[in-house]
Amino acid sequence: MASVTSAGPHPIYLAGRWVESPDRLVVENPARAGEPAGWTYTATAEQYEEAVTAAVAAFERTRRLAAYERSAALRRISAGIEARRDEIGRLITLESGKPIRDSLAEVDRGILTFRIGAEEAERIGGELLPLDLNPASRGRTGITRRFPIGPIAAISPFNFPLNLAAHKLAPAIASGNPIVLKPPSKAPLTMLAVAEIVAEVGLPEGAVSILPMTRDLGDRMVSDERFKLLTFTGSPSVGWKMKERAGKKKVVLELGGNAGAIVDRSADVDWAVRRILTGAFSYAGQVCISVQRIFVHDAIWDDFMARFIEGATKLRVGDPLDPQTDIGPMVDAKAVARTQALVDEARSMGGRVLLGGTADGSYFPPTVLVDTPASARVSREEAFAPLVVACPFADFDTAVRQVNDSRYGLQAGVFTNDLAHAWSAFEELAVGGVIVNDVPTYRIDHMPYGGSKDSGLGREGIRYAIEDMTDIRIMVMASAG
Q1: Rounded Cα gap, residues 4 and 197, in angstroms
Q2: Looking at the DSSP assignment, which residues form a beta bridge with residue 294?
Q3: Which domain holds residue 307?
């Protein structure tokens, strides 16, 4: 088998075997036009059918795997990724354009995610439920247990090609379900490297397939009734249409947002500035919980904005393989053009650009907008770019309402040292996660993660994903006589 980092095309992973297809897939390097990051293949319709058939057959074995077997496999995957940390980190950078420092951090999170999966495999439990609540149920006791639901269809995005796929693969293995994963066409090589590790851990044949696919085959997977759950991370426009076509299967959607961060009067301004610079501009803002909207109290507006602009000017834009780089390229020319269009429209509607605002080839500099109408697309849509819209506020409740004035509700950040305001934000913000004294971009891999409104359906975080990947069954025991 060719190495992922070798010059030849890398085969794809079909039910425990490495295969090729007539359809070669060239993976572009966002930082170096004309220098591909590598090559692989897209699966044929016949290969897709083989993978699904194998997954259905494998379920009879995976659902009977003992907890120690599932846990051991996940621990070996975690260790295998750790042993190849530098190689996989470099591969993430080559195919996604993510700065190498951030790519290595993603590898570390992937190591953790599979380790957490191993731990959760060992503690999938149930409960003893007293049923003798009335005379007719005297002598009866219930025992609940979670059972794997069956083959899982998974689709993961380009921006975290390892860890967002890991959040589908790890809980599937942990809960005893086969999985067919469609990695992103822009960045499939990372999970094919992980597949090399998966192939060595002793899972049943058909338990895992990692197949780059065309959109047509991906659509076929969405509606395929043999899958019992569809888990998708990507854009809202695509995700909700998938749900309409998914039929009777369970659906988990982790979609986008235009996350807001409130900087209250009592906030530590230095800390807020440092964290929002990271939350807004890391990986060129191509993160679904990237800070896109900042709401700053009038009393500290001038101070905050001066420090924020100064900090943003110091961020280094450049070669993502350079460890000193803060911001690399955007994923493709289409993303750059869309970002430029958002900024240009904001300008035409009266918005002012305090920093950045003009693309430089495949790079877009840190961009800060003020006086931007709430009706502008940059305020209402997901930008997925290194830009923020900043607005002052006079009243904390008003800031909360402004954050909620969005069709998205993934996560929100609240910088405050007022405990009442922290609790009020937790109560009133219509989001999946309220992060106090940090950015909405914060996530650790065992926490429940997901959104409300157009931002998604269901939750990830290994234990919470396992809940969707299993069904509860009760056994009722009655004493004789």
Answers
A1: 12
A2: 261, 390
A3: 260-444
Catalytic residue among 50, 106, 254, 460: 254
Q: What is the rounded distance in angstroms from the CA atom of residue 480 to the CA atom of residue 343? A: 74
Q: Which of 120, 288, 382, 391 is catalytic?
A: 288
What does each C-alpha distance from 57 to 11, 171, 245, 349, 446 come to in angstroms?
23, 19, 24, 58, 30
Residue 480: pLDDT band (50, 70, 90) is confident
The alpha carbon dihedral of 280, 281, 287, 292 has a sign of positive
Three-state secondary structure readout of 109-177:
HHHHHHHHHHHHHCCCCCCEEECCCCHHHCCEEEEEEEEECCCEEEECCCCCCCHHHHHHHHHHHHHCC
Catalytic, 288? Answer yes
How many percent of the chain have pLDDT more than 90?
97
The answer to whether residues 198 and 213 belong to one domain is yes
Quick one: 166 and 302 in the same domain? no
pLDDT of residue 393: 98
CB 168 within 8 A of CB 254: no
Q: Write down the pLDDT at residue 31.
A: 94
